[in-house]
Each structure stands twice: as structure tokens, then as C-alpha cells.
Write a structure and sequence with these properties.
Layout lengths: L5 E3 L4 E3 L24 H21 L4 E2 L8 E3 L5 E3 L6 E2 L6 E3 L12 H6 L1 E3 H17 L12 H6 L3 H10 L16 H14 L10 H9 L16
Antiparallel strand pairs: 1-2, 3-6, 4-5, 7-8
Keywords: ATP-binding, Kinase, Nucleotide-binding, Transferase
Protein name: CRK10 (CYSTEINE-RICH RLK10) kinase-like
GO molecular function: ATP binding; protein kinase activity
């Protein structure tokens, strides 16, 4: 189905028409990039806005919409840092009785691509959850990549560059090594560590083991929600 023309400013979703608003998400990215990294309160605002937008697409749109390409490069920010989800080129509008759309065609950015989409070309609401988790890890890490000393297979390096590193550091209790050095402030350390765990839940290998975007938004918004223990993430090799 064709994705309908839609704009909803309250839920931070812009469909079809997206303007190059500023500032850029990370310093050094784009022509109008900010000179200083965004602090954690600003990044957390952006993350919640992205989650709200995804919930709108998944639950409040009629028909429901799979974005298919969530990643930092498809998140634009206005002057107040309110995120807009853009680039709906591979999005799918779900039929009322369907929960996925399988075309067999695989396009998109490898580092944010769910394994079931990579392998079979099937998009679902849970592929968006995976992409959101990969995006959250990138926002927490900043523009820095995983260390070259980390043993990664070609698949892991190409498709899940932060998954293995985040998992290993989470298991070892050394998550501050993952977090952007500009965010090393004990004031937000507990929330940052919690959000890494949420991201790991989103990038689980099996779609059935990932939370819904509604549950993700609840986890991000309410610290009293007890988080499940994540399992090995996708592309852990």
C-alpha cells in the first residue's frame, strides 16, 4: 500500500515532506552541524521524541505504518531540538490483518537493519524496534565507533557495529566505556546505563523478544518499570 500524505507536529512525525531543519544530531555531521556535542538532557529529549513518533506510526496511524529506515541520518531536528522522522522511501502501510510486509527486496543502511529483514526482506513493526535500538546506541555513543581492538566478524562490523561492544560492556558492568566521553557526568550515569539496556532489548536477534515501541516509550519515560534481562544481541559474532 502507498503511504498516505501525513504530517503530525504533535507526535514528531513528518511523512513524505521533510525539510533540512537544524541542528544536526551529532557535531561534524552535515553543513549546519553544531560545534559542540549535545548534552544528555537534549539527547534524551530527542530519543523520547523519536520513540513517540514511532508509536504514532505503529499504533495511532490508520493504516499502521512501518518506517523501515529508522537511523540517525533520518532524524531531523528543528530549532527547539524536536525530532522529525523523515525519509519514508521504503515505508510500508500495513493492511488491517497483516503484521509484516515481505517483498524479498532488501535496501537501507546496514548498521540499522534487523537480521530478519537482511535475510528475507520482511519488514515489520519489530524491524523498526530493532532500528530504534541501534539508533539509541549510536546516540549514546555519539559519532565514535567501537574500538578497532574489538574482535568482530565482517557481518557484525557491517550490520551491528555497536551491538557486541555494548553487550560485553553491559555484562561486565563497564558501560561508561561505551558512552560518549562528553557525557561522562555521574548526574546522568544511571539513566544512561538503563537506556543502554533498553537499546539491547530492542536489538535482540528474535523479533518476538523485542519490546513494542509502546513498551519502549514506557521504559524510557518511567524509571519504575522493571527492565527484562536482554539476551545476546543480533550480529553478535
Amino acid at each position: 500500500m502507498t503511504v498516505p500524505l501525513l504530517y503530525n507536529k504533535e507526535t514528531s512525525v513528518a511523512v513524505i515532506f521533510c525539510l533540512p531543519v537544524i541542528p544536526a544530531l551529532f557535531p561534524g555531521t552535515g553543513e549546519r552541524a553544531t560545534k559542540e556535542p549535545l548534552d544528555w538532557p537534549k539527547r534524551s529529549q530527542i530519543v523520547r521524541g523519536i520513540a513517540q513518533g514511532a508509536v504514532y506510526l505503529h499504533k495511532l496511524c490508520e493504516p499502521r505504518i512501518i518506517h523501515g529506515g529508522l537511523k540517525p541520518g533520518n532524524i531531523l531536528l528543528d530549532a527547539s531540538l524536536k525530532p522529525k522522522i523523515c525519509d519514508f522511501g521504503i515505508s510500508k502501510a500495513l493492511k488491517a490483518d497483516a503484521d509484516k510486509d515481505c517483498t524479498g527486496v532488501v535496501v537501507g543502511s546496514r548498521g540499522f537493519m534487523a537480521p530478519e529483514y537482511k535475510q528475507g526482506g520482511c519488514l515489520s513493526l519489530q524491524t523498526d524496534v530493532y532500528s530504534f535500538g541501534a539508533t539509541l546506541l549510536q546516540i549514546i555513543r555519539g559519532k565514535h565507533i567501537s574500538p578497532s581492538s574489538l574482535a568482530l566478524s565482517d557481518e557484525s562490523r557491517n550490520y551491528g557495529p555497536l551491538n557486541k561492544w555494548a553487550w560485553n560492556l553491559w555484562k561486565d558492568g563497564n558501560l561508561m566505556e561505551l558512552i560518549d566521553p562528553s557525557l561522562h557526568d555521574e548526574t546522568h550515569a544511571a539513566e544512561l546505563k538503563r537506556w543502554v539496556q533498553i537499546a539491547l532489548l530492542c536489538v535482540q536477534q528474535s523479533p518476538e523478544e523485542r519490546p513494542s515501541m509502546w513498551d519502549v516509550l514506557l521504559m524510557l519515560s518511567c524509571d519504575s518499570v522493571i527492565l527484562p534481562e536482554p539476551k545476546l544481541p543480533a550480529y553478535y559474532c
